[in-house]
Amino acid sequence: MKVRIRKKNRDGVVRLESSGEIKEFMINEDFLKPKDAYVSVCFKGKESSGIIDLSFKEIEILNKEVKEKKRFLGDVEVMKFDK
User: Fold this and answer.
1) Which residues, 6+ apart, have CB-to-CB distance to 37 below 8 Å?
2) Number of structural domains found in the chain
3) Which of 5, 31, 39, 47 could be bridged to 16 by S-S, CB 3.0 to 4.6 A?
4) Does an H or E element contain 64, and which?
């Protein structure tokens, strides 16, 4: 996974780029507030780590965009490797 970030500071805009491996995928849900649920993607690289939180609305938008462009990907195969 590759993460690219633009961050504003005193000197202007700084661009950060990092890569890592997705370690965990969690769905965080509150039974009292089901509309406030979100998905967390946790990643870790050699010199960086982080968590990306996505709301279900953002997941739906992402899913829609990927569905429309799926024909460009061709045949997708899910591969699992033992550690």
Assistant:
1) 27, 28, 29, 30, 55, 56
2) 1
3) 5
4) helix 56-73
Residue 4 lies inside a defined structural domain of this protein: no
The answer as to whether 15 is a domain residue is no
Q: Could you tell me the pLDDT band of residue 36, with boundaries at 50, 70 and 90? A: confident
Contact (CB, 8 A) for 45 and 18: yes
54 residue type, one letter: L
Which residue in this structure is represented by tokens 């967390």? Answer: 40
DSSP string, 2-33: EEEEEEEETTEEEEEEEE-EEEEEEEE--SS-
46 inside domain? yes
2-9/12-19 β-pairing: antiparallel
- Residue 32: give the domain boundaries: 22-71
- Burial class of residue 43, CB neighbours in 10 A (0-12, 13-18, 19+): buried
Give residue 74's pLDDT.
67
